[in-house]
Design a protein that fits this description.
The complex is a heterodimer of chains A (115) and B (116).
Chain A lengths: L4 E3 L2 E4 L5 E6 L6 E7 L6 E7 L2 E4 L8 E4 L6 E5 L8 E8 L9 E2 L3 E5 L1
Parallel strand pairs in A: 2-11
Antiparallel strand pairs in A: 1-3, 3-8, 4-5, 4-9, 5-6, 7-8, 9-10, 9-11
Chain B lengths: L2 E3 L4 E5 L4 E3 L2 E3 L5 E7 L5 E7 L5 E3 L5 E5 L4 E6 L8 E11 L2 E7 L3 E6 L1
Parallel strand pairs in B: 2-12
Antiparallel strand pairs in B: 1-4, 3-9, 5-6, 5-10, 7-8, 8-9, 10-11, 10-12
The chains are: A mainly beta (115), B mainly beta (116).
């Protein structure tokens, strides 16, 4: 069964350092999402790609976060510099269609701890 | 803007007992509703979804949910809980958008504990 892959699964870093997370969506899925989930809360959308284009980054802290999906396949989310408040689970999800309401398939997430 | 409220932060049930997790949504148009489950340290798995049609939706692992428009609710139920059902449950509403795929807005989740 096809799955969304994410790496690393866990990342510990010190504040002011740079971190990067990688996501490989299910093959053929046009839409890719990055969510941040703070402990005890639901996931919150950071950025949404349709193919290689960003279609929603309204909640992305652009002074320190960046995301790319250069070839419209896998994606990287970067934080530079990391802050203590960035400690959270970062989830990647993908969906097949580029329009309408679709099921989103989630990866296992990357747990980030900033010291 | 859409929103989801899950009023119960934590619920404890005995194995074999019935379960109902509450979800209320706010959305101006016809809602697209989802229930996801998250085991500790894991990603989210879809349990079931409602797009239209029959208001009682069957999902995986013996779960079902009922859409009630008059109450803006989409409660999740299971007649007999198993210890393996202990997890975090999230209700979400999907908003259709012009020219692009939907965005999901999640509730804060309900943590289910199952006692033996």
């Amino acid at each position: 069964e096809a799955e969304v892959a994410q790496s690393p699964r866990y990342k510990i870093t010190e504040k002011s350092q740079a971190v990067a997370f990688w996501c490989d969506p299910i093959s053929g899925h046009a839409t890719l999402y990055w969510y941040r989930q703070i402990l005890g809360q639901g996931p919150e959308l950071l950025v949404q790609f349709q193919d290689e284009s960003v279609v929603d980054d309204s909640q992305l802290p652009k002074d320190r976060f960046s995301a790319e999906r250069l070839k419209g396949v896998d994606s990287t989310l970067k934080i530079q510099p990391a802050e203590l408040g960035d400690s959270a689970m970062y989830l990647c999800a993908s969906s097949f269609a580029s329009g309408g309401v679709n099921e989103q398939f989630f990866g296992p997430g990357t747990r980030l701890t900033v010291l | 803007a859409q929103s989801v409220t899950q009023p119960d932060i934590h619920i404890t049930v005995s194995e074999g007992a019935s379960l109902e997790l509450r979800c209320n949504y706010s959305y101006g148009a016809t809602p697209y509703l989802f229930w996801y489950v998250q085991s500790p340290g894991q990603g989210l798995q879809l349990l079931l979804k409602y797009f239209s049609g029959d208001t009682l939706v069957q999902g995986i692992k013996g779960f079902e949910a009922e859409f009630k428009r008059s109450q803006s609710s989409f409660n999740l139920r299971k007649p007999s809980v198993h210890w393996s059902d202990a997890a975090e449950y999230f209700c979400a509403v999907g908003a259709s958008r012009t020219g692009t795929a939907s965005k999901l807005t999640f509730g804060t989740g309900t943590r289910l504990q199952v006692t033996l």
